[in-house]
UniProtKB/TrEMBL annotation:
PANTHER family: PHOSPHOADENOSINE PHOSPHOSULFATE REDUCTASE, SULFATE ADENYLYLTRANSFERASE SUBUNIT 2
Biological source species: viral metagenome
Position of the signal peptide: none
Stretches assigned to the Phosphoadenosine phosphosulphate reductase domain: 31-188
Molecular function GO labels: catalytic activity
Protein name: Putative phosphoadenosine phosphosulfate
InterPro entries hit by this protein: PAPS_reduct_dom, Rossmann-like_a/b/a_fold, Sulfate_adenylyltrnsfr_sub2
A Pfam family annotated for this UniProt entry: PAPS_reduct
Length: 243
């Protein structure tokens, strides 16, 4: 399917995104955040087409699906993998379990590994359609010393897939198996049928997670108080249910 022209600019969204990337190109080049998902695949393609200087980085969280890591290594070998100082499972007994409201895992596993990279002009495959919170931040914003650029901010999902199909771009095999998201395997936002599907597909990740949760249970709360659950199974199940 051909992209429609913007009646004001006379450009397709692809052309406009490429122009946006060129217009804001910093002298030292861009940092491109690459997750292995469909949005970052499109962002990478647009950046290459723009002909600008950039380095692509993948935050290797240790809890991504192995299929994602394999996909990046096979199809995007120039992407630089950055790992956290401590694993997710080692951090749980120290920091407590992550929740939808206290997502220390995003900071420790995704942001910290790349925070010392001197490229402060950072491109991300973030789209307004994904959430009201993301939409509110705009196409460009500041995060500490970083300036964040979002070339595909105004794209909707079908346009992402249309670009992938039109340009015959590779995507991770998990999409073909019905997985709609390729984020962390163990995540407080994964629940219900998606949780059951993930636990069945990647049991080793959940075994390691439950061992880490047992260490946290045995240790007790940071203030020394006991947990309000009566036993570990209840404690673990409450986390899975988002309580």
């Amino acid at each position: 399917m051909m992209q429609q022209l913007n009646l004001i600019t006379g450009q397709t969204k692809e052309q406009e995104a490429i122009e946006f990337i060129r217009e804001h190109e910093p002298p030292g080049g861009y940092f491109l955040g690459f997750s292995g998902g469909k949005d970052s695949v499109v962002l990478y393609d647009l950046t290459e087409k723009a002909g600008v200087k950039f380095e692509a980085y993948y935050s290797a969280t240790g809890i991504d699906a192995p299929e994602v890591v394999k996909f990046i290594r096979e199809h995007y070998p120039t992407v630089i993998h950055k790992r956290p100082k401590e694993s997710f499972f080692a951090l749980i007994p120290k920091k407590g379990y992550p929740t939808k409201w206290t997502r220390w895992c995003c900071d420790k596993l995704k942001k910290e590994p790349t925070k010392d990279i001197p490229l402060v002009h950072r491109m991300m495959g973030i789209r307004a359609e994904e959430s009201a919170r993301r939409a509110a931040r705009g196409r460009m914003d500041k995060l500490g010393k970083w300036t964040i650029y979002k070339p595909i901010f105004n794209w909707i999902e079908w346009e992402i897939w249309d670009h992938i199909d039109s340009h015959n771009l590779p995507t991770c095999s998990l999409y073909d198996e019905g997985f709609s998201r390729l984020g962390c395997v163990v995540c407080p936002f994964v629940d219900g049928p998606k949780l059951k599907k993930a636990m069945k597909r990647w049991p080793k990740h959940y075994l390691a997670f439950e061992k880490a949760m047992k260490k946290l249970w045995d240790k007790g709360k940071p203030n020394g108080e006991p947990w309000h659950e009566s036993n570990f199974d209840e404690f673990l199940n409450n986390w899975y249910r988002g309580k």
